[in-house]
UniProtKB/TrEMBL annotation:
One cellular component term from this protein's GO annotations in UniProt: cytosol
Segments for region (Disordered): 191-221
A biological process from GO: polysaccharide biosynthetic process
Catalytic residue list: 62, 132
Pfam families (UniProt xref): dTDP_sugar_isom (PF00908)
SUPFAM superfamilies named in the record: RmlC-like cupins
Provenance organism: Streptomyces tardus
Keywords: Isomerase
Superkingdom of source: Bacteria
Name of this protein: dTDP-4-dehydrorhamnose 3,5-epimerase family protein
GO molecular function, one term: dTDP-4-dehydrorhamnose 3,5-epimerase activity
Biased composition (Basic and acidic residues): 204-221
Amino acid sequence: MQIEETAVPGAYVVTPAQLPDARGTFYEVLRTDLLEQVLGHPFTPRQINHSVSRRGTLRGIHGVAVPPGQAKYVTCVRGAVRDVVVDLRVGSPTFGRHHVTELDPGSGRAVYVPDGVGHGFLALTDDACVCYALSATHVPGTQIDIDPLDPELAIPWGCEGAPLLSPKDANAPGLAAARAAGMLATWQAVAPGHLTDPPQGHGVRGEGARGEGTRRRGERP
């Protein structure tokens, strides 16, 4: 399993080792021990959500106020999505910067989204199913919504025509307005403990599931 930091400090792309055979394939979706080595703190899922979206649906940019905060571990279990994280932490050296990752079951990639960072995705297929493992349960009234089409963010969604947005997302404030309203967390409050500057490829490789031979830890029966 490979865990690599993105252009947004504290946000990671996780790529599992695949074990293909005549039956299909197998991979580990989440190894909290390896992830926590990188994060420097525990990640304990408290709630798991699924969303199913038709092609062209754009969800986001969403975050959770700090406190209480809410980290996410995002995977795509059916179809494909263009997944985006956005640094919403005021004072961060990468405030307003984004990172794009395409997620699908074939690659098995996942994205870890830390406290204070926004998240969204564009569904590239019909019935695209995204799974979120969350570090905290939902607290009504704490969600932060940012306009995903804000020119200041300049996210390269690659939409084919107008995206399908919820009324809430379509009417969400832009980054500057959200900052002025005091909606966003500060870098000092949520900065990753190992970082004082933008990331330089911090990450780990774990053994996880391995290749051919006799059955090993993590290998499916």
